[in-house]
Amino acid sequence: MNGIPPAATTTDTLSAFKAAQGQRLAGDDLTKSTFTQSGNPTSGLTFYDLEPGAKLLYPVLTPLRNSIPRVSGRGGIQANWKAITGVNTTGVRAGVSGGNRGGVIAVRTQDMNAVYRGLGLEASVDFEADYAAEGLDDVRALAVQNLLESLMIQEEQMILGGNASVTLGTTATPVVTASNSGGALTAGTWSVVAVGLTLEGYLNGSVTAGIQGQMTRTNADGSSDQFGGGAAKPSAAAAGTTTGSAGSLAATVAPMIGAVAYAWFWGAAGAEKLGALTTINSVVITDLAAGTQTAASLGAGDNSQNSLSFDGLLYQAFKGGSNAYVQVMPTGTAGTGTPLTADGAGGIVEIETALKAFWDNYRLSPQEIWVSSQEAQTISRKILTGTANSAQRFVFNTDQALLGGGVMVRTYLNRYSMVGGQTLDIKVHPNMPAGTILFRTTRLPYPLANVTNVTQMRMRRDYYQIEWPLRTRRYEYGVYCDGVLQNYFPPAFGVITNIANG
What we know:
This protein has 502 residues and is an alpha+beta fold. The protein has helices at 6-27, 63-67, 127-132, 139-161, 199-203, 313-318, 349-362, 373-384; strands at residues 70-72, 78-87, 107-115, 117-126, 175-179, 188-197, 214-218, 224-228, 238-242, 248-252, 261-267, 273-278, 282-285, 325-328, 338-339, 368-371, 411-414, 422-428, 437-440, 455-467, 474-487, 494-497, 499-500. It folds into 2 domains: 63-85 and 107-162 and 310-392 and 407-500, phage-related protein like fold (Alpha-Beta Complex); 175-298, no CATH class. It is globular, with a radius of gyration of 34 Å.
């Protein structure tokens, strides 16, 4: 190479390269890289590891809807049927004398009906929401699925506690007893107002959001509906006076047939605010009301009935003339109430009384007891801590490797039956309020009763979907059904309410 030795060329080249690299490295930050992992999942060249399909993390618990048969209606505006509710009602004796005919019996009949109601909910999906969800989920199908499940949940609540016909009326004036200890009320005169609540009113109410009087709902088509939100007419105000800075009030109100809870308002006269919801007919007030809703905002009317609902199992029992078994527990001590009572023989006094009444009056035995989590716990505790150990049976599995804690009473033995002891299943219902028990009969013991299902959902039209014509760049859907809960024999059901926790 032009007379330059190869070794010298190589040495010079390496020296020049090292000098150039030294100059570059001296001016660069060695801690920097072309690409680094981002600390944010949506910035930089970072893969977003998103699983397709939204996870549906909400309960769809509809045990009554799932177990009650659904049958087709035959048109009309209501289901109608006739019943013979008594034979030989005057007790004519059967003995006859020679050659003569017997006495003539009388039968008791009753015309019965149940008015059909439409049920439905709506949802919509913007065009852009549909575009944006591509590759993740089918939001249009998801909207309809959500609607169907929402409608089932609402139908379940209505099957249990819909109220179209039971009027709670005016809540009685509370009895208020003031104390100068036990709380944080300052000196003054406090006014207390009580409001009885149906199941619908209780489920949709809270201290923070308030309870619902008359409801006005704007519908998807711009129309509106008015109906009762489940609150009785508020009581007249009652007063209690405290002194010092540690005062409290004990308030009780006469229990109302059909009320499963009570809302309590207190404060200055005319400005009473919501402070508590109780499932017994009393409360102990120890501080200022935490809510913002005033009793005056409810108006002066009774809004306990929902004209868009049908009567559920609870209110078919509460209804006057149903002849269902209904027991309201005594008031007891304010704020404490009266709990269920262990009978010392492995049972519960109040349940025994109910089961005996079913047999004595109608010669039948219910098959199920529906309770809240509170009553499930109470029943188990009172039976297992009773004094009659011989009345209890424990089954141990010797194959079990570990001993597990916790005991639950799942059935209750009914001794009032022609075939000996029968067991009732104890079931927890997601919408049953604390303080209420429902007895349900699923089959009648009467031969040739001509009743296939004691209760059934009679449907003019079962679930159907509507995709409405486009009027904006939005897909609009409705899911509907039309029917009624048909109960052939309300006396086969029973309710115990106003049960205190304890």
